[in-house]
Structure formats: structure tokens, C-alpha cells
Design goal:
The chain is of the alpha+beta class and about 375 residues long.
Length: about 375
Amino acid sequence: MSLREKYKTVRQHTEDLLKPLSTEDHLAQPMMDVSPPKWHLGHTTWFFETFILKNFLEDYQEFDPTFNFLFNSYYETVGKRLVRDQRGNMTRPPLENIYQYRAYVNQQMDVYLSGDPDPKSLELLELGLNHEQQHQELFLTDFKYILGVQPFYPVYREDFEESKVEKGKQEWIQVWKGTYRIGFKGNGFCFDNEKGRHQVFLHDFEISNKLVTNGEYLEFIEAGGYRDFRYWHSEGWAWVQENQVEAPLYWEKSEGKWQHFTLAGLKDINPDEPLAHISYYEAYAYAEWKGLRLPTEQEWEAANELFKWGQRWEWTNSAYLAYPGFKKEEGAVGEYNGKFMVNQMVLRGASVATPEGHSRPTYRNFFHPHLRWQFTGLRLAR
């Protein structure tokens, strides 16, 4: 598939994901980490306008000068922007204008790509497409949270399947001590935080062939895991107490039965399905309760060909830091990953919300340890 065709496919997929939404759905922002669908639509369009069309298409006419303020996410280089927790207050411009904006930028991108595009712009195009795929995943997790805080368990799509039971029994996979090469290799796309392929020495370890399941985690809950400080980091224990956390996000117990909210509505907990929506604090505490641990991101990458992954982003016991030789790109795109390398933990794999073709074993996702609105789970090591 050519980049021009891929552009059309990726852009259309975003709009397809939003088809089940009402107009009112597009504006909700129940917490700062969740962006309204309307903002996702505008921001992903702004990316192509700002980094490609304004710089590479001769005589390009900006769609609306105010959109740079409204849809810039965190790029200080590009200028001032709307405060993150105010995105849900953006009643104007109306939703139809955002779709007009998308159509206009798509048409201008088609004009540009039909000519003789600058090679540097094609690198930015590849980054922009992967950026939009990140927002497709974020939209699904954001919108699940938007629905999850409403009464009566509204449904996004009745046929949306959030997980599948992993077949076979749990087994330990042996990985022998030695030197392993970590980081992206090849000629395809990767984000800058995957670069800097390097050697690491790992001691003998074993890693589970399966993710921790709902049923296994339920044992931790019923054993009083959320009431016993011994299993928690000090910061995690404070988080549990301050927020009165008693179960994973979206779980609730009614008439003695555990249920959880899904994009297909309220469902009974299937004990055999992989666990989701836990924080790093919870993942760590569960591992401590089991007398085991979380794998490091280096261990996970060294072993990833030995087990199936992709249903859940998997918490690792690694802080999000730069690889050897990492350096930021020049200009605004240098703000993409590097400036977030503090106070966050690495997750590996992918999730049921990850678009097709947007996962690889070197992909480094990262979030603050208390966050759990993503499809986050865990795999144990020892």
C-alpha cells in the first residue's frame, strides 16, 4: 500500500470509529486524561496541517488560524494552546466544522502527495499516520471512560469484543542468562524512543506464557489484597487509601456477583479472560502477593517470541527512560517522546484497542503508575 493510500485508509478509520456517537458524545471530558472525541478529530488533522502542509505545500491557505490554539496538544515550539482539562468546554467551533476541517486537509494532502513530495515530508507523514493510530486507540479508551461514568451502562457497540480467553494452561517459560539486543531493528517505522538498539545482560529468569486472568486477580481481592499494606509501594498504598480503591476500574459487585462495564455494556466477569484496567500499583501489589514480580521491559522484549501478546498493554517493572544514544529530533517533533521520560512506567505489547499494524515487540508505551483507563494488564515473572 502506498503512503497516499495508507493516508486515506488511516484517516477514514478514525471517522468510522466515531460513527456510533451522538453529537453530544463528541464533547464529553469527565477527567483530564480523557480527551473529547471532537478534540481527537481536530488534533489529528492539525498534525498534518501544521507539520506537512504549512511547511511543504506552496501557497497553502490555513483552514482557520484559531485551530492552532485549539488543537495543539503539547508542542511548545508551535505556540500557545488550550489547557488540557478545558478541551471538553469547546462548544465552538461546531462539530460539522471539524469534519469540514478534516475534509479540507485531506483534499490538500491529496494534492500534495500527488505531486513530488519532499522526502522529509514523507517521514513526517509516516509519523503522522502512526500518531493518528495512537489516537484511534486513545479514542476507544477515552470513550469507554466517558460512557463508564454515566448511569445505565450505555453501549458503544454491542459487538465490540474486549478480550478472548487464552487457551491452554499457565506455564513458565525459561529464559537463560546472557546478552540480548534490545531496541528497534529493520527499515520500517518506529518511534524515536525505540531507537538506540543496544545490548543488555539478563540473568536467568522465567516468564509466564499467559496474562493474569480476572479469576486469578479476584483471589487477590477476596484475600484482602487491597487492605494489606505489605504488598504495596508506599505511594501505591497512599493512592489506594486516598481513592478508596477496592477493585480494577469498571468492576462492581452487585448481589454477590462481580460485573464490569465494557464497550458492549455491563457484563458478568469471565474469570478466564485476561485482566484489564489496573494501575502499575495494582500490578505490582498482585505480583508481591503471589511472591513473584513483574518482568522488566528488557526481559519482556527478550522473551516476546515465546508467548502470545496483544490483548493487553502489559505493565513492566521498568521506568520510562532513554536508550543509550537517544537524541531528540530537531524542531517540534523532538517533543514527541523525550520530554516525557520522567515519573512514568513502561508497558509492552498492544491491546484490543490498538489498530491493526500498529504494534511491534519494541513498542514502548508509557503511563503514570496510577492510571488505568487503558486496557492494561500484567504478566508475571520470577
